[in-house]
Amino acid sequence: MRIGELSRRTGVNAHQLRYYEAQGLLNADRGANGYREYDESAVLRVKQIRHLLGAGLSSEDIAYLLPCAVGEAPELLGCPELLAAMRSRLRRLDDQMDRLARSRAALADYIDAAEQVSSRTYPLFDGTDPEPAPA
């Protein structure tokens, strides 16, 4: 099938399908006319890729996981590549969450400090955003 048909059958636009191919996630042969030709298994592969992307995995992670993927959802067999990639991704997510929590706490501290200064400088300041003037 050509890329347009694969796009229609999976709901993924052709640009994304070409990206998947460039990342080594999807394979296509070239017809005599130079067009990409996908076999029937590409439909399942694209659905697997979409599910794994939805789980927050990078295309690099997915490249390691696809050999362990079975079915559309997909079910992932416990092969070593899969477990190592998922553990790595989980560590990265934990690190991002830690950084966000620290950033949030610092921002909240700045807001508290600014409100304290404002309440001393402007006694009527109650810490809320001012209401817009009537039009």
TrEMBL record:
InterPro entries: DNA-bd_dom_put_sf (IPR009061), MerR-type_HTH_dom (IPR000551), MerR_fam (IPR047057). Pfam families: MerR_1 (PF13411). Residues 1-68 form the HTH merR-type domain. CDD domains: HTH_MerR-like_sg3 (cd01282). SUPFAM superfamilies: Putative DNA-binding domain. Keywords: DNA-binding. It comes from Streptomyces glaucosporus. This is MerR family transcriptional regulator.
